[in-house]
Amino acid sequence: MNDNNSYLPLKTYLQPQKLSLPNSKSTLLSQREEKADKQDMVERTIIVYRQILPPLLKNLSCISDPRQPGKVKYQIAMLMLYGILMFAFQVSSRRQANREMTHPLFLENLKALFPDIEDIPHADTLAKLLKDLEDVEQIQECMIGLLKNLIRNKKFKNHLYQHHYLIAIDGTQKHIRNYPWTSQCLRRQVGKGEEKETQYYVYVLEVLLILDNGITLPLLSEFLDNQAYANETTKQDCERKAFYRIAKKLKAIFPKSRLTIVIDGLYACGPVIHLCKENRWDYMIVLKDNCLKEVGQEARGLMKLEPGNSYECYWGDRHQTYQWANQIDYYYGENGRNRERFDVVICEEAWEVDSRLSGEPKYKKTRYAWLSGSTINQDNVFIRCTRMARYRWKIENHILIEKHDGYGYEHCLSYDWNAMKGYHYLMKIAHFINELITHSELLIERVRKVGVRQFIKDLYETLKNTELNLQKIQEVVSRKHQWRLISSEFT
Q1: How far apart are CA 467 and CA 462, in angstroms?
Q2: Which of 201, 337, 169 has the alpha carbon at shortest distance from 265?
Q3: Residue 323 in contact with residue 345, Cβ under 8 Å?
Q4: pLDDT per residue as tens digits for the range 122-175
């Protein structure tokens, strides 16, 4: 640090705080107020639906339909919409969908929201369609089309990180069985000695778009498919192979846009870094202590020689100290003939923890390190490390929400590989839509008051059990409305 500025107080950056739900009784005083409140919730929600769904339904209607034209009762777009709503309302199974989503009152209310719906199909009708689709990836492409439409309409223009789209990538297990239910499953041995057994599991590489107003949007899902290696004993499909496939898709989606890729230490290797540079992508990659040891040693040595490459600040109540080394050379490949160059940055963080029991202050410390695709300096080190690289944890939270907060990520809705992927893509579209709804200015106050999951439950229960003023809904639909996303996660 500059000695002339050593007396200046350290800069403090805002730290997002998790909002706690109020522990209070209902403010509604009568049944009339309650009914008006539910009506208002549905009207506000339909405004957002009407902004999002038309281009999506248009894309869904273009999916190749494998059914015989003369025997089709439900159009393919309406069947797909049914599947999306099943996940959007967090109905956990096909049996539950048949039981709850076929009530006459629910259908009547749903028609007011989506006039093209004439009837609710049986859940098995959608399962059969997904099983027979020639190219189930078309469903995911429809979600990408929705994303592109929002980008064209400049919905995300003011929510980028230094004019970059922040892309987080991480893998997760979808579900596991003890028998080979399909040849595409990955295999692994668990247990020791004679107790070893083979497990068959589905693994997915997820891609997320992170915006600086707190919104996280699912972008791509790449299934690890082991069918090509079914006869092999030493190799299977893996996360890195899936990453290279994902990279091609990302390049097709964002051919000229500026991307920053945030990924964990599994990808801290020469080929991945080279691919990012080849595509002109910025990156922040976690550097683990036991990874690229020579790079770490060289970086620490340069940090000692260049003490000016440091920065201190506060992130909320956490004291952060950054050190970095620029232009580190990394050699890899046969005889080290390939070279990549990047920056290495380390963040040491300390904060006081609750010490009410002991009465004495206690402190915790932690340390982070990354490989950076852009030059680190005092002006950008906090943004790149704390507001970009560390926001990789948002994809982990995103996946946990899908697993445990109603989306049924790990639930196997079909044992057909094609149908399973189709349900997965429909679930992603539903989460995409719910993210936009719950982060819209029209509904954010209600969402912050009751929470996201309770809001979704309230909306579903209202459509199932409440006689709404359908004429008023039609009047709302017929008017033009402006839809905006929240401006910041701090407000």
Answers
A1: 8
A2: 169
A3: yes
A4: 999 999 999 999 999 999 999 999 999 999 999 999 999 989 999 999 999 999
- 161 closest CA partner among 466, 489, 412: 489
**Contact assessment for residue 442 and residue 48, using Cβ atoms and an 8 Å cutoff:** yes
Angle between helices 452-465 and 417-438 (to 10 degrees): 100
Intervals of the chain under pLDDT 50: 1-4
Distance, CA of 409 to chain centre: 12
Cα Rg of the chain, angstroms: 25
pTM, two decimal places: 0.93
CA proximity to 326, closest of 344, 340, 312: 344
- CA 33, distance to chain mean position in Å, is 36
What are the Cα distances from residue 402, in Å, to 124, 136, 431, 434? Answer: 23, 21, 8, 12
C-alpha torsion angle, residues 90, 93, 98, 104 (rounded to 10): -10
Do 76 and 129 contact (CB within 8 A), yes or no? Answer: yes
Are β-strands 338-353 and 362-372 bridged in parallel, bridged antiparallel, or unpaired? Answer: antiparallel
Token pair 């079909």 in the structure block, residue: 414
Instruction: Indicate the SS3 state at residue 466.
Output: coil
Is 444 within 8 Å of 213 (Cβ atoms)? Answer: no
Kind of pairing between the strands at 12-13 and 310-315: parallel
- Residue 185 tokens read as 């499953």
